[in-house]
Amino acid sequence: MNNDFIKNEVLVHSDTLLHYANKFTKDQDDAEDLLQDTLMKVIRYQEKFERSTNILGWMYTIMKNIFINRCRKNGVERTYISTVFPALDPTKQQSQNKSIDNFLGEDIDSVLMSIHEKYYTPFMMFFEGYKYYEIGEHLGLPEGTVKTRIHTARKLLQEKLKSYKVS
Fold first, then answer.
1. Phi/psi class of residue 166: alpha, beta or left (left: φ > 0; alpha: ψ in -120 to 50)?
2. What are the tens digits of pLDDT across the range 21-77?
3. DSSP summary character for residue 141
4. pLDDT per position as a tens digit, 123-139
């Protein structure tokens, strides 16, 4: 498949997909982001599309899965942050002081930057919503190695940010 496939079969459905994205997100900016991520995945995996099947249905399924994964990720993120780093959970903070928020953000950024790149890259890709196999394909690593590196990055973050843990 090639640029003709993208131009003649994928992009003609952009308006319809944007309509679906708006129904999912209920926000125009988020809908446009969802559409863009969907189109990127469609282009990336276009060789997996079977010509005799419904392309709009295929793209809709990709969009729906991206949206569901984002919802799961956001839920997991909130749970993870509130249990591992309760001081970072805005609903549990004692202070509404923005300078404290900036301080915490700077600390997290500096800790992230101190992690070796072989752990940082898979961790950030996972945090951004990529699946283990996608990270493995991108980095040329086995899925088990990806999981181990993400786990190691989490442990390093927990250790380096343990002073923020509330008992």
1. beta
2. 888 888 899 899 999 999 888 888 888 888 778 888 888 888 988 888 887 777 665
3. -
4. 888 887 888 998 999 88
